[in-house]
Amino acid sequence: MPTSNKASHAWIFGDNIDTDLLAPGAYMKASLSELASHCLEAVNKDFAQQVKKGDFVVAGEAFGIGSSREQAAQALVELGVSAIIAKSFARIFYRNALNLGLPVLVCAEVDKISKADQLIVDPIAGVITNVTTQETYQCDPIHPELMAIVNAGGLMPFLKAKFARQS
Amino acid sequence: MPELMSPQTLAQKIIAKASGKSHVSPGEIVTCKLDLVLMHDSSGPRRVKSRLEELGAKVFDPNKVVLVSDHFVPATDPESAEILALTRRWAQENLITNFYDMQGICHVMLPQQGHLKPGMFIVGGDSHSPTGGAFGTFMVGIGATEMTGALATGEIWIKVPETIRININGQLQKGCSAKDIMLHLCAKLGMNNNYKVMEFAGDTVADMPMYERMVLCNMSAELGGKTGIVEADQTTIDWINNTGETAAIDALDWVSDSDARYEKVIHLDASQLIPQVAAPHSPENTHPVTSFENITIHQAYIGACTGAKLSDLKMAAAVLKGQKVAKGTRLLIAPASTKTTELAAKDGTLAILTEAGAIILPTGCGACAGMGAGAIANGENCISSTSRNFKGRMGSPESNVYLASPYTVAACAITGEITDPRQFLEGELNANIK
């Protein structure tokens, strides 16, 4: 899981950001880049067009609720989002994101983050630094058992290493 | 060791067996062996094929995989046709004998074909995988990378969940169904019951046919739960025996210990419930049908794993018998499996629906997932027997989806607006549609 010291822009969303908003069904058979260009358009028309590599998505409760479609997390990876910070995550989305190497951080203090705040996120330590407001926020730690997958950069690199050891 | 003696919920018992332990506790992370894996055409071969090749891995046991094409069926353009062709090739190359091609929706095909047995630990590449919990299994949804790992290793890690027991007692009123219970629970419990197992119990559940228990577990997904589960009983055994399969001798042992510890226990008096409707754009935005006035309905949709089984078609028929769909409203029905259509044709249900003016669509996930026929336009209102009404799910981001039972959806089709179905059920004894 990448750690960056460079501050990036926060995009703010509310509660219950569902997988149909993230990966609309009408584009599910399209290419990942086309699907990603419609990511969250029903709630923020500018997001997919203007989000920059390294930016953060900040949201409320139950982020990623709904379908098991992995493209919901993959679209955010495709757009360059470097981490999602939310009060809580839907469980399949949470696993999908970590499996793809996209850091997902549970943080009770997300309401203190405002639109366009510049953040530095350390997903391993679970610490968010808000450069704009000079605050720091603590995130819930990722379960130690999951850190093996996280540290490998996702489930595929983790499995590759596992299969390499077996052969 | 007192820990080993402590009572367990049904979910804990299944996880303990699958992880080779005598006992598991909530919060513990364990690795479980998979008894069965379910995949469909959208999240299945097209997403896992290249990854398995990248790993140089083979399917751990082709006989433990059930593959269903239900999302992009029937093909509507060259892209969906290619996805289906890839699915078929992959099934053949990987010797997947349990491949159901365009025969029904995966969550309905599994029990219809007798694949579900109490005590099984199952993963499915779809968020409505909890449906299988109605048969006393522990079944959870996973994404495609996770599926790659499951297929390659035959195992998955899981955090042992807490269980919430939902005791439902009392006889459902006329025009009410498991769907109304679940919509009501979405409003009452919210959609953020993450990582929890919803265990449904009580007299109302014991009296429910399997189709209705499936709705309870199916919509555990909308509660945000890890899965839903119902203890096995004679109704479960009878279902399995009717499929031509045989339930194991220990099938009835798959129940929670009477003194098992639950995170909480919720009580619901089903006899007090009236038909429920979820307003846009969330299942938790549910209110009694009587609180909706002058909401025009352009499309009434009966479909998907949640709401197009034989029982659902019968509920719609009970309302639509001798009635006509309103001018300006279209009633679309996509039966959950070809077998459903066959049985509905045999028993006269289908004729009641078509005589009322219903348009029968191909079997598949279809418009529920915004994928097949039946998409809705900007500004249109659809009432649907499906499980999700997220913004834009069934078509235009500026369309509105209301959720209700098949009874209520059918009543709305007759009047062209949101309508209490009970007025169309005079004299009907419909509480227990089997």
From TrEMBL, chain A:
Under the heading NCBIfam families, the entry gives: LEUD_arch
Q: Which residues form the Aconitase A/isopropylmalate dehydratase small subunit swivel domain?
A: 44-102
Q: What is this protein called?
A: 3-isopropylmalate dehydratase
Taxonomy, superkingdom:
Bacteria
Q: How does it assemble?
A: Heterodimer of LeuC and LeuD.
- Does the record carry ATP-binding as a key word? no
Per the UniProt record, the source organism is: Colwellia chukchiensis
Pathway this chain belongs to: Amino-acid biosynthesis; L-leucine biosynthesis; L-leucine from 3-methyl-2-oxobutanoate: step 2/4
Query: What keywords appear on the UniProt entry?
Result: Lyase
Q: What InterPro entries does this protein's entry cite?
A: Aconitase/3IPM_dehydase_swvl (IPR015928), AconitaseA/IPMdHydase_ssu_swvl (IPR000573), IPMI_Swivel (IPR033940), LeuD (IPR050075), LeuD_type2/HacB/DmdB (IPR011827)
Q: Name one GO molecular function term.
A: 3-isopropylmalate dehydratase activity
Q: Which family does it belong to?
A: Belongs to the LeuD family. LeuD type 2 subfamily.
Q: Which Pfam families match?
A: Aconitase_C
Known catalytic reactions: (2R,3S)-3-isopropylmalate = (2S)-2-isopropylmalate
PANTHER family hit by this protein: 3-ISOPROPYLMALATE DEHYDRATASE SMALL SUBUNIT 1, 3-ISOPROPYLMALATE DEHYDRATASE SMALL SUBUNIT 2-RELATED-RELATED
Q: Does the keyword Amino-acid biosynthesis apply?
A: no
State what this protein does.
Catalyzes the isomerization between 2-isopropylmalate and 3-isopropylmalate, via the formation of 2-isopropylmaleate.
Cite the EC number.
4.2.1.33
Automatic annotation (TrEMBL), chain B:
**What keywords are assigned to this protein?**
4Fe-4S, Amino-acid biosynthesis, Branched-chain amino acid biosynthesis, Iron, Iron-sulfur, Leucine biosynthesis, Lyase, Metal-binding
Task: Please give a single GO biological process term from the UniProt record.
Answer: L-leucine biosynthetic process
Please name the Pfam families in this protein's record: Aconitase (PF00330)
Q: Does the keyword Transmembrane apply?
A: no
Ranges for domain Aconitase/3-isopropylmalate dehydratase large subunit alpha/beta/alpha: 26-416
Superkingdom in the source lineage: Bacteria
The GO terms this record gives for MF are: 3-isopropylmalate dehydratase activity; 4 iron, 4 sulfur cluster binding; metal ion binding
Q: Which residues are in coiled coils? A: none
Q: Which PANTHER family match?
A: HOMOACONITASE, MITOCHONDRIAL, HOMOACONITASE, MITOCHONDRIAL-RELATED
Q: How does it assemble?
A: Heterodimer of LeuC and LeuD.
Protein name per UniProt:
3-isopropylmalate/(R)-2-methylmalate dehydratase large subunit
Organism for this UniProt entry: Colwellia chukchiensis
